[in-house]
Amino acid sequence: MNKKLPTTLITGASGGIGEELARVFAEHGHDLILAARRKDRLEALGEELREAHSLEVHVLSADLAVPDGAVRLHSAIAQADLEVGILVNNSGLLAEGNFLDIDLEQHCQILDVNARALMQLTHLFGQDMRRRKRGRILNVCSTSAFQAVPGLASYAATKAFVLSLSEALAMENAAHGITVTALCPGFVQTEMTQKEDGGHMNQPMVPLLTAREVAEQGYRATMKGKTLYINGIGNRLVQTLVKHQPRWVWHSIGKIMEHRKL
Ligand SMILES: NC(=O)c1ccc[n+]([C@@H]2O[C@H](COP(=O)([O-])OP(=O)(O)OC[C@H]3O[C@@H](n4cnc5c(N)ncnc54)[C@H](OP(=O)(O)O)[C@@H]3O)[C@@H](O)[C@H]2O)c1
């Protein structure tokens, strides 16, 4: 008989990369717990995956921007007597533009979902995993974690937090049987990068990956227990170049580009 694969909790599975992660984990035979605010979308995805793969798929509505959102999600899963073997922290949001022009409340929500809730879920489910001496955590980070990004200031700052937290936790928990993976995609066309007029935010000059490709690579990196995975050779090349420049070079380029916008 086949050994049961760990049940996987995926936040932000109602669209984009999270939805594709759900499909990829399902194709590999993992039972799923899907969480996000748009429950109708999760129900539809759950239906599709149950039918296609004969899996258990649980759907939970969760707003991770509210202070107790992560704690409630953890309690709901415990009450349903479910065990999370793999935690995928994928929920995220961004606001593009000059930091001072964007409503402060929006920046706070970005911080709450991208950083605070991710840290809370990692702590809560991480403790359960440590008791069982096994578990995997996939934190969906971003290439914006590696340097400050004018126009995405608060978003990139939260991703720098996620990267640092994930790397530290990977080191702390290796001896406890828990792997922590920071997945760093570059630009991917999803609702997040869509503008109000239907077009997309400015795209970098590297070959783009689809949400599906990012999800497949994220699954492999998680199951191999990699600590860091940057999606795409173009993004890896750019990050290598950035890493080997003195920071003042990046600062000067950023200032010139921002000045040109005035
Ligand atoms: N697209 C890119 O270029 C890119 C690049 C690098 C990294 N990433 C990262 O990849 C992850 C997924 O992004 P995506 O591009 O797939 O964006 P997306 O299509 O907009 O999906 C974002 C997901 O986050 C969930 N979410 C947002 N606010 C939430 C809240 N308050 N509570 C719970 N869930 C919430 C959304 O669900 P509901 O609205 O239903 O709640 C949605 O399922 C994010 O962490 C993002 O930072 C994206």
Describe it.
The protein is α/β, with parallel strands linked by helices. It has a single domain, classed as 3-Layer(aba) Sandwich (Rossmann fold), CATH 3.40.50. Helix content is 48%, strand content 13%. The protein has helices spanning 16-27, 39-53, 69-79, 104-132, 153-173, 211-224, 233-243, 247-260, and strands at 8-11, 32-36, 57-61, 86-89, 135-140, 178-184, 228-230. It has a seven-stranded parallel β-sheet, sandwiched between helices. The longest helix is centred in the middle third of the chain and has 29 residues, at 104-132. The chain is globular and about 55 Å long.
Features:
13% strand; alpha/beta; Rossmann fold; 262 residues; 7 strands; globular; 7-stranded parallel sheet; binds NADP nicotinamide-adenine-dinucleotide phosphate
How would you sum up the global shape?
globular
- pLDDT average, as an integer? 95
> Could you estimate the helical fraction of the residues in percent?
40-55%
Give me the secondary-structure category: alpha/beta
Which cofactor or ligand species appear? NADP nicotinamide-adenine-dinucleotide phosphate
Strand count: 7
Ranges where pLDDT stays below 50 over 5 or more residues in a row are none
**Tell me about the biggest sheet?**
7 strands, parallel
> According to CATH, what is the topology?
Rossmann fold
Number of helices: 8
What is the CA-atom radius of gyration, in angstroms? Answer: 18 Å
Quote the distance from N terminus to C terminus.
65 Å
User: How many domains in all?
Assistant: 1
Strand content: 5-15%
Order of helices and strands: EHEHEHEHEHEHEHH
Question: Widest sheet: strand order?
Answer: 3-2-1-4-5-6-7
CATH top level class name: Alpha Beta
Named CATH architecture: 3-Layer(aba) Sandwich
CATH superfamily: NAD(P)-binding Rossmann-like Domain
